[in-house]
Amino acid sequence: MNATAPHGPRGRRLPPHGAVVVTGASSGLGRECALELESRGFQVLAGVRREEDGEKLLTEARYGRLRHALIDITDEASVRASAELVADRYGGLRGLVNNAGICVPGPLECIDGDQLRHQLDVNLVGHLSMIRAHLPLLRRSNGRIVNVTSGLGKTAVPFLGAYSVAQFAKEALSDALRRELAPSGVRVSIVAPGAILTPIWSKVSQAGERALGDAPPAVADLYRSALQAFLEGNAQLAMASRTTPEDFARTVLRALTDVRPRARYWAGADARRAALLARLLPDPLLDRRFRGITALVGAPGPVGRTPVP
Ligand SMILES: NC(=O)c1ccc[n+]([C@@H]2O[C@H](COP(=O)([O-])OP(=O)(O)OC[C@H]3O[C@@H](n4cnc5c(N)ncnc54)[C@H](OP(=O)(O)O)[C@@H]3O)[C@@H](O)[C@H]2O)c1
């Protein structure tokens, strides 16, 4: 890991070679990231949950350096199998990109224990399972862990409470790991994307409708207008976002190749702004920024667009 390669004015980069595992590569940011890392020179093991998603990805990979594996990060046997495959095929691991994720939306009053556990299983516990299983391989290669969080890793947004809980926790997991693993040479970075148009947004809208459907009618009625306006506003924000999956993939590449990787990278000005506001603004001012979202709680019908910071 001593060789460095010049790469732009901001600093020097390590050459992009060795093996990298990307979880959640069937769609959206993970898919783009797997293809970008392959194109730059890494051997990529793309984690998908369905064989057909892996085969589709293979047809899109152009350099013969991408393979896929069935990895469900909430299934310990599948996580162990991934580590065994990496050991057999590559011998070591330069990078583990913990990208897989879901978003369980809805007012917290509508989120039951099973839904919260599922959110945390995928966005937190599953990542720690992947990290634990792959750490011996990462140590062998002075490898890097890249944990994908979100602009909501520092700001808890109404109606995305369960997701925010998971993202805050993943930030804490990353900070603790970075400090614990520093002596072993394994570096840990967070990549926090802002809003980027991917399939996650339509999944969020559908899941939000389901959350209302599962709640007791009186509770659902209380939140219906506000939640629907919120989900609609969010979808519009994602569609209007100027940050692309390619921006995200290039940010992950930086985290994997910067000679001195940062603790945190942002992909999107909105994610950076959310973190900054969370640090600078006192709680009453932050609360005020979110009042628009909850203004319709108790209102009879959905109206207009609700701004999200
Ligand atoms: N897009 C954004 O605006 C945005 C903003 C902030 C943060 N993020 C974060 O970025 C990451 C990627 O999101 P995305 O926008 O690309 O969403 P996406 O298109 O919905 O992709 C999510 C990926 O995670 C996979 N996944 C879900 N549960 C899994 C499990 N148990 N085991 C393994 N893989 C699993 C999905 O696989 P299946 O296809 O098999 O379900 C899919 O490949 C997520 O962690 C998300 O929280 C996204």
TrEMBL record:
Question: What family does this chain come from, according to its entry?
Answer: Belongs to the short-chain dehydrogenases/reductases (SDR) family.
EC number per UniProt: 1.1.-.-
Q: State the superkingdom.
A: Bacteria
Q: In Gene Ontology terms, what is one molecular function of this protein?
A: oxidoreductase activity
**Broad class of enzyme this protein falls into:** oxidoreductase
The species this protein belongs to is: Streptomyces stephensoniae
Instruction: Supply the alphabetized keyword list.
Output: Oxidoreductase
Q: Which InterPro entries match?
A: NAD(P)-bd_dom_sf (IPR036291), SDR_fam (IPR002347)
* Pfam families per the UniProt record, alphabetical: adh_short (PF00106)
Q: What is this protein called?
A: SDR family oxidoreductase
Q: Please give the Gene3D superfamilies that the UniProt record associates with this protein.
A: NAD(P)-binding Rossmann-like Domain
